Amino acid sequence: MDDSLVVILTALNLEYEAVRDRLTGLAVRRHTAGTRFEVGRIGQSGPRVALGLVGKGNHPSAVLAERAINEFRPAALLFVGVAGGLRPSVALGDVVVASKIYAYHGGTSEDDGLKARPKAWEIPHEADQVAHHVARVGEWRRDLAAGANPRVHFGAIAAGEVVQDSAISAQARWIRQHYNDAVAIEMEAAGVAQAGHLNRALPVVVVRGISDRADGSKAVTDGQTWQPRAARHAAAFATALAQELTIDSGRRRDGMPGGQGSAPMPMKNENLASGNARVGVQAGQIHGNVTIGASLEEPVDLAASIADLRTRLKQACLDGRLDEETYAAAEAELDAATGCLRDGSAANGGGFLMSLKRLRGLVADVSELAARLAMIIAAARGIA
Questions:
Q1: Is 311 found in the same domain as 249?
Q2: Nearest to residue 372, comparing CAs of 350, 356, 358, 354?
Q3: Which residues form the Nucleoside phosphorylase domain (predicted)?
Q4: Are residues 239 and 103 in the same domain?
Q5: CA geometry: angle at 272 spanning 270 and 275, to 5°?
Q6: Sign of the Cα pseudo-torsion (51, 55, 56, 59, in order)
Q7: pLDDT, tens digit, 9 for 90 and up, residues 137-185
Q8: Is the pLDDT of residue 260 over 70?
Q9: Are 93 and 210 in contact (CB under 8 A)?
Q10: Could you give phi then psi for residue 227, rounded to 5 degrees?
């Protein structure tokens, strides 16, 4: 799991744009099946976000949520957008966080009528606690349009396969009869909730801005630009929530109070060296075998290592950890090193090692790449 990354999915382009406007350093990342994500940061130094567009409906939202989870292994998944309000107390522009999600189209048809077969998912307790904290503090409203002061509601959201725009239709009566506690209605939440449930209860939070009242007035409220306004409010709350969720996830990983991780070892090591000696490794208690650098028994395949490094370099650029200019320079050094391998001059050191050293300087800020380069350089020195 990547504790520093949250996936945010939307159904509509205007919802996507509302979230995208809050991200910086965006880089495209394409799934092998063609799904396009953009990876960036919240603000200049916030957590990373993988943003995706799924389209309308629970079925595509389920499939693409599953795809995003497997691609990024995020700390949490948020679904952000607009919805219709079902309660007079929920005003246009207000934000609803789903405490429960209903898939309301399940049922069985019998002689005496249609009977509901409810299926529901509740928000995970820890995510619910964090969301309430974000709502209480209220900092998420700071950069909304002047005069905007939306409230946050926690309640059930009904998710189906049709747009509800009537207060008296058969569907509206069905919702009131069988899902009476629902405060909003939309079309994607059940899909993402199911995807989260099937992935070891990954925290899934649905955040909706209320853009209409699901009562026949949708054309009017859309004409009053409530959709983009409600989307911006939902995006503001969701990005604030994403920041808090990554902090909370990091605490659990590090074993801080309330977490499931191992507590840090209460141990201090101090190695002293004098003269020309240097401390090579400083470690705590070690169990099992330890190998440092290249193994003499298992020579490193330089060609395979360079190919693997090239793949990781590309991924670092797509993830936004490496800017395009640095990536291009790093690729040039890799090409030079690959040329040395191809013509057999790598065994003589020289140009091959110099290319690797220049490359190490370019990617020094990406610890994973720097560590792999150090191993390749050590192996190259062994054959030079």
A1: no
A2: 356
A3: 6-241
A4: yes
A5: 165
A6: negative
A7: 999 999 999 999 999 999 999 999 999 999 999 999 999 999 999 999 9
A8: no
A9: yes
A10: -60, -55
